[in-house]
């Protein structure tokens, strides 16, 4: 079923956060005008990963109308293994039949479509509460320093030994920017200043949305955190595209390289959809749909 979606407050420049000495954030200037994307029946650009690594993306016009498909939140594989907030691309999402007990009272659940709804839910047979499942937000930083970007080599599964931007699950009680700064500190021992949002990438199949910020190092110091075996600055021509951990990182870094070579980073929105019949572990087997940029 098609649904109209409105995205408000997207900006291409002007939102600036400055970390407070306490480690929190203060909002020091807002100059961007809120934008709105009105969606209709048009179809936006599709980028197929078969173009990679050359990454020849057919551009979608900014603020272009597009059609959004409903999320396939009940058909994903279950491969989540990370115990911390670090990114687990094969995370379980939407498999309601794996919810067998109520998170509030511990009672057994039944699996039914509630009156007035369309999706199967886990419903507690004791207290009657419904366990709704919603996507998780992953936040991270694309750190620019001396015309290079900072990557971390993962020391944990999934994708052990592969490179990623510092990123992880947003926690309750923090903003997306605060979470990105925290994850960068945890994975790279790097203090960063968030400059602007760079990309929002939805992955409906696994119920994740990535929000990646451009950031600068406050001090030219970094080192591997507990979840990383190495942290390294890469020039754009040396980014290890064949050894990246996740599709989201492949998309983010390709968009960034393309933007820098064109003169200036933009803000990107897109949906990463796995190509049917491909391996969940193949990070190249996807299409980037509904790619918008401003
Ligand atoms: Zn209950």
Automatic annotation (TrEMBL):
Q: Which residues cross the membrane?
A: none
UniProt keyword Hydrolase present:
yes
* Signal sequence bounds: none
A Pfam family this chain is assigned to: Zn_ribbon_Nudix
Q: Which InterPro entries match?
A: NUDIX_hydrolase-like_dom_sf (IPR015797), NUDIX_hydrolase_CS (IPR020084), NUDIX_hydrolase_dom (IPR000086), Nudix_N (IPR029401)
Any idea which UniProt keywords this protein has? Hydrolase
GO MF entries: hydrolase activity
UniProt keyword annotation of Nucleotidyltransferase present:
no
Nudix hydrolase domain location is 134-257
Q: What is this protein called?
A: Nudix hydrolase domain-containing protein
